[in-house]
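Hi, here's the filled form for the chain we discussed.

Project: internal
Contact: R.S.
Residues: 452
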Amino acid sequence: MVRFLFAFLLMLLLPEIVMAANFESLGLTGTERGIYTVLIFIIAYGFVMAEEFTHLRKSKPVILAAGIIWAHAAILSAQAGVSIHDMHAAFEHDLKEYAELMLFLMVAMTYINSMAERNVFEALRSWLVRKQFGYRQLFLITGVITFFLSAVADNLTAALLVGAVVMAVGADNPKFVSIGFVNLVVAANAGGAFCPFGDITTLMVWQAEYAEFFDFFKLFIPSAVNYGVPAAVMYFAVPDEQPKSSTEEAVQLKPGAIQICFLFLFTIITAVSFKQVLHLPPFMGMMVGLSVLMIYSYRINFLYAPDGQPFDVFHRVRDAEWDTLLFFFGVVFAVGGLGYIGYLELLSKGMYDGLGPTTANIMVGLISAIVDNIPVMFAVLNMNLDMDLYQWLLVTLTAGVGGSLLSVGSAAGVALMGQSNHKYTFFSHLKWTPAIAGGYIASIFTHYLING
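And the returned structure, exactly as it came back:
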């Protein structure tokens, strides 16, 4: 990793290269202003990585960095004599990428929030707590639930929802919470890799049309191996004990809860149909699903609101993870601005042309253990690489599961560190990194055997 970063800094000083894409990059990476934009991005991302300690929301520094980077890109464009139309084409490319993904994710988050408001996840948590499973049984059950839940909800949501169960039953057993949270992080990241709805990076590859919707399910077995290998190792370290009995009462579902779950399934099918059948962007199908939820909310309020709290879909939209959506805005435009200046072409030459696609794609996963996988994947997508389906699935897998290697490598890990009351830490996760790395290697090898 250190060598890679050193090589990257050296490449900043190399002669400029022009990128062949829908628009041409400026090729001004060796200029003082160009290098300044890279430093701005590094500083901003330093604040992102320190969010746990500074409590500065991650969206704030990257949005500022994006504005500064594009301001300098515009100045460099004018100095190079590039027409305003060409610069706008580059800018609008980023805007289109962000708009499609933002609308898609907003609908998905709204449905997840609606199901949470109707007590769907709380009822599941209550049921697991009341069943009085042993710690080892709960270790397996919570891991498998997280693996499959993160395929339709994002890994952060899945980890937090199931993490509440682990905290509830392991309140008197810090060792179980520590190992259980490592298990959830690995399961959440692995589960999100084989379905376009499970991870933003997977969704980005799907919407960029480098793979069809059903192609991603070829990663199911490699993803299961990625989760299964470290889980098998950690299982024997889980206390073979029974948690204290719980007197918690069952949580009742609110009216319309089950129907909203089916509407979410309908929305997923609609999004896939719009993409596969109508060849329209999948966010349009998601917006259709949102409209159906809005209409159904009218029925809920008509039948049940007089006796209870009204169900307002717009409140669920308001409660979406706007910090994540705005962080994504900053990342898209910051990385896009650096790409317009010419840095993505330099990285492409250094990694993919120099090391070959397989090694480079494996390295992408290692980088995502330190840097969030969203900017890493967006950079890869904007390198205009000529790779076959096997390689695109490989980078989807590695970018998705590579963040499990460190607790700070994914949103799930960072969130669970905050939820655990110091029972799950960076170093408690690091203890299991060798086992997680074994799963990472095994999943890549499995992908080669099955899909190569």
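Let me know if anything looks off before we file it.
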